[in-house]
Amino acid sequence: MTERYEYVPHRLLHRRVRDVASGTEGTLMAVINEDVSDSLAPHWMELAYIRAASGREFTTEVDNVEPA
Fold first, then answer.
1. pLDDT per residue over 27-64, tens digit each?
2. Are 28 and 62 in contact (CB under 8 A)?
3. Model-level pTM?
4. Which of 3, 46, 48, 49 is the most exposed place for a label (fewest CB within 10 A)?
């Protein structure tokens, strides 16, 4: 079995960011290149994991992340 994810370095890691899609702000905890496919054909996406003020983390496409 192969890995279905890998961590990716990002210049805003552990900094305050905004998800432009939702307008939600938080701390960028990780950027992960993930295979999000349910089938045998892989579909890789870079997802940003952001921790909001509530403590809950959510994901968004890494292109939606900007400094807050």
1. 999 999 999 988 889 899 999 999 999 999 999 999 99
2. no
3. 0.89
4. 3
